[in-house]
Amino acid sequence: MASHRRPKQPSRARVTVLTTAAAAAVVLSSQAANAAPSEKQNKDEVKAKVDKLYEEAEQATEKYNGAKEKQEKLQKEISTIQDNVAEGQEELNELRDGLGSMASAQYRSGGIDPSVQLFLSADPDDYLDKASTLDALSAQQVDALKEIQEKQRDLAQQRSEASEKLKDLSTTRTELGKKKKEVQDKLSSAQKLLNSLTAAEKAALQEEEERSTRSSEREALTTSTASASGRAGAAFSAAQSVIGTPYVYGATGPSSFDCSGLTSWAYAQAGVSIPRTSEAQSQIGTRITSQSDLQVGDLVFFFNDLHHVGLYAGNGQVLHAPRTGTVVRYESMSTIGGPFMWGVRV
Q1: Known active-site residue 4
Q2: Which residues, other chains included, contact 151 with Cβ-Cβ below 8 Å and sequence gap of 6+?
Q3: Quick one: pLDDT band at residue 97, thresholds 50, 70, 90?
Q4: Pairing of strands 317-320, 329-332
Q5: How confident is the model at residue 43 (pLDDT cuts 50, 70, 90)?
Q6: Is 308 an annotated catalytic residue?
Q7: pTM, full prediction
Q8: 3-class DSSP assignment, residue 302
Q9: How far apart are CA 253 and CA 262, in angstroms?
C-alpha cells in the first residue's frame, strides 16, 4: 500500500531568511535604478571639475617652469665657474713653473735664495708672514708672491661656490620632478573625468568652447588690428600668427605653448626678452591696475597667485594659451575662471 506523505514545509526560519533576502534584493535593485541617473555626473558637473583640475595643473606648471628655469640658470653658472677654475689653475701652474725655473737657476749657481724658497712654499700665506724678516725680497718678488696667493684664494672661493650651486641644483632637480608629477597627475585625473562622458556630451562641450572662441575673436578683431603698435604690437602680431597652436605644459613654442611660454615667445619675436614665468613677468614694466587703461599687447594676469597670463586683445578680450586640451585663442577676460589682477606694459 503506497504511503501518502505531505510535502515537507520549509521551516519558519528558512522562510524568514528567503523573504528577507528577496526583499533586500528588491530594495537594492530599486535603489540602484533610482541612483543611477543621479550618480552619473552630467557634462556641466564634469566640466566644472575638469576646469578646476586644469587650473591646479596650470598652477603646478608655472612652479615647474620656475624650477626648470632655475635649473638651466644654475647649470650655466656652474659651467662658467668650472671653466674659470680650470683657466685659473692653468695660470697658477704657469706662475709656479716660472718660480720653479728661477729656483733651478739659483740652485745651479750655488743655492736657492730664501725669497725663492718662500715662493715655492706649500703655505705661502704662512710664509708671507715670515717674509718681513727677509730683507732680500724685492718689490717684484713680493708682487709675484701676492699674485700667487690671490689666485689661490680666488680658486678656493670659486670651488666653494660651485659646490654650493651643485647642492642647489640637486634640490632644484628634485623639485622639478615633483612638480612634473603633480602636473601629470592632475591632467590624468581630468582625462578620466572627460572619458566618463558620452560622445554626445563631449561634442556638446566642444561646440560650447568653439562658439565662445568665435564670439571672442569677433570682439577682439574690431580693435586689435588698429590699436596694436610698437613692440607690444609686434608681440601681439606674433601671438596672432600661432592662433590654433596646441597648449602643452612647459612649452615655449613655436609648435606648442603654455601660457607664459606664449607671452615670452611673442615678445622675443619683437626683440624683447622677458622672464619665463607668469609671476616673474608680472613684476616687470609699468603696472596697469584698471582694465579700461589696457592697450593691445599688454600682458594681463589672472588669479591671486598670478599663475595665468595672456596678451590683451582689446574689447575685454585676451589672446592666450588657456590650458591642456585647448589651443592658442581669443577669450573674454570674464570667462578666464579667475579674477583679473593687473596688466603690465612692457
Answers
A1: no
A2: 88, 91, 92, 95
A3: confident
A4: antiparallel
A5: confident
A6: yes
A7: 0.69
A8: strand
A9: 7
Q: What is the pLDDT of residues 65-92, one digit of tens each?
A: 999 999 999 999 999 999 999 998 888 8
Q: All 3 cell numbers of residue 111?
A: 743655492
321 is catalytic: no
Angle at 43 between CA 56 and CA 329, to 5 degrees: 55
Q: How do residues 104-149 score in pLDDT, each as one tens digit?
A: 655 555 555 555 555 555 565 555 555 544 444 456 566 777 788 8
d(CA 83, CA 211): 56
* Catalytically annotated residue among 320, 323, 340, 346: 320
CA distances from 337 to 250, 278, 290 (A): 21, 16, 18
C-alpha–C-alpha distance, residues 253 and 246, integer Å: 10
CA 300 to chain CA centroid, Å, is 19
State the catalytic residue, choosing from 308, 312, 323, 328: 308
Of the candidates 235, 244, 88, 70, the residue with the CA atom closest to the CA atom of residue 169: 70
DSSP 3-state assignment of 84?
helix
Q: How far apart are CA 84 and CA 98, in angstroms?
A: 21
Residue whose C-alpha is closest to residue 151's, from 181, 119, 178, 183: 119
User: 220: which 3 cell numbers?
Assistant: 577682439
The cell numbers describing 81, all together, are 665657474
What is the spatial distance between Cα 319 and Cα 264, in angstroms, rounded to a whole number?
Answer: 13
Q: In the numeric block, which cell numbers belong to residue 25?
A: 534584493
What is the Cα–Cα distance from 272 to 346, expressed in whole angstroms? 9
Residue 1 one-letter amino acid? M
DSSP letter string, 37-83? HHHSPPHHHHHHHHHHHHHHHHHHHHHHHHHHHHHHHHHHHHHHHHH
Is the CB of residue 71 less than 8 Å from the CB of residue 166? no
Angle of helix 43-108 versus helix 259-269 axis, rounded to 10? 60
**CA torsion 121→127→131→134, rounded to 10°?**
-50
b/e burial code for range 173-183 (CB count within 10 A of at least 16 → b): eebbeebbebb
Q: Which residue in 148, 259, 311, 313 is the catalytic one?
A: 259
Q: Please tell me the predicted confidence (pLDDT) of residue 320.
A: 97
